[in-house]
Amino acid sequence: MPAISTATPKVDIRGATVEFPARRGRTPVRALSDLGLTVGEGEFVAVLGPSGCGKSTALNLIAGFMRPTTGSVSVSGKNVARPGPERGVVFQDANLLPWLTVRRNVTLGPRLRKESATQYEDRVTEVLAEVGLDGFENHLPGELSGGMRQRVALARVLVNSPEVLLMDEPFGALDAQTRMVMQELLLRIWEKERTTVLFITHDVDESLLLADRIYVMTARPGRLKEVVDVDLPRPRDYALTTSPRFQELKRHVLELIHSESVRAAAQV
Questions:
Q1: How does residue 5 score in pLDDT terms, banded at 50, 70 and 90?
Q2: Which candidate, 151, 108, 157, places its Cα nearest to that of 131?
């Protein structure tokens, strides 16, 4: 297993266990068990594992949506106690407000914080251009494709200039071609912004294309199985997926995932 950097991490989960209490006579469910995970400043890290292994639970801990039963979660050296604008979250569902235009959806955060338009308008224009939505500012979500709605969701987070970008299978509901376009868009944005990213996915190819490192998790209760360093050159695009090194890494990660998927299936 590759060594993890000893430098102070941007995101640090230490010994996190999450146990959901028993309901109606059922036994408690342990989602995570003694999970350790770090993300360095400006690093792009993917978390990969079988369904139900606790990937999204780990992201929710960092986002501040829930607290660990035991263990600690910190961002920039500060304990995470609640959600905050320095941690932006993009979900699989864009979760846009259908009665608001693209621009009004994107500016929701600054407006809720009661910032004046002069504080954020330049940034809004920049971000909309960055995600390829200039010209669509006055469209409603119902007038957009699924991929464009995800662009709005991404822009809504980026306009806040978060220190950490948390992405929970953001392209999982998109068709294959749109997903490819969105992956390359995210790569271009990350190359420019170098925001710290934690990306949850179940797709091996996606994790290898995007990430610097991959945390492979075990079946429930989720623990760290292996850290895979993705030593592929940057900048990246889809041409890289046919390279011998990409295929070598893919075989290794698939072997790790397969054994855990078999274990997860046996739990059902």
A1: very low
A2: 151
> Residues 6 or more apart from 57 whose CB is under 8 A from it?
18, 31, 32, 66, 222
Q: Do residues 228 and 204 touch, judged by C-beta distance below 8 A?
A: no
Amino acid at 264: A
Instruction: Give residue 24's pLDDT band: very low, low, confident or very high (50, 70, 90).
Output: confident
Side-chain half-sphere exposure of 87, counting CA atoms within 13 A: 25
Q: What are the b/e assignments for 152-168, b being 16+ CB within 10 Å? A: bbbbbbbbbebbbbbbb
83 preceded by cis ω (within 30°)? no
Mean pLDDT of 164-180: 95
Number of helices followed by number of strands (H, E) in the chain: 8, 10
Q: Higher confidence at residue 226 or residue 22?
A: 226
